[in-house]
Specification:
The chain is mostly helical. It has a single domain, classed as Ferritin, core subunit, four-helix bundle (Ferritin). The protein is 72% helix and 0% strand. It contains five helices and no strands. Helix 3 runs antiparallel to helix 4. The longest helix has 28 residues. It is globular and about 45 Å long.
Length: 144
């Protein structure tokens, strides 16, 4: 795979992490007290991944994509139940881009992307209460 294709996959993961950091700000504001610590932990994990991906982009000779000032939410988030759905949605989206990065990368970057995919899938299960057969692979997880 070309360096440009790899850089594109890393930038996509970085963009997803920017969106997840923003989204967890919304989740944290709406989630009930019993799950707030879990939301803070997820927010911190996504911030760390975002920062790491920014360094990776620079290492590949690129300029890290900046975060947008705001992101459109996929649905209204007026209450804790919607916050749970948003958290799961964010993790599913992140898992998808890490799945793409696993396919694009090799070596240490591939291992890191696989770990990130696994962590997103686990967080999604915790938020949703159930898992999907192939996390990060929407085309395989869809039911006939």
């Amino acid at each position: 795979m070309s360096t440009q294709a790899l850089l594109t996959a890393v930038q996509a993961a970085l963009a997803a992490e920017h969106a997840a950091v923003y989204g967890y700000g919304v989740v944290g504001a709406r989630i009930d007290d019993a799950r707030r610590a879990e939301a803070v932990q997820a927010h911190d994990a996504h911030r760390a991944r975002r920062d790491s991906l920014g360094r990776t982009v620079r290492d590949l000779g690129g300029t890290p994509a900046a975060a947008a000032p705001g992101y459109a939410l996929p649905f209204p988030v007026p209450d804790p139940a919607a916050a749970l759905r948003l958290a799961s949605h964010l993790e599913d989206r992140v898992a998808g881009v890490y799945s793409d990065l696993v396919r694009a990368a090799n070596g240490q970057l591939r291992r890191e992307a696989a770990v990130s995919l696994r962590e997103a899938a686990v967080r999604s299960v915790r938020w949703r209460g159930s898992g999907v057969a192939f996390p990060g692979l929407a085309e395989r997880a869809a039911r006939p």
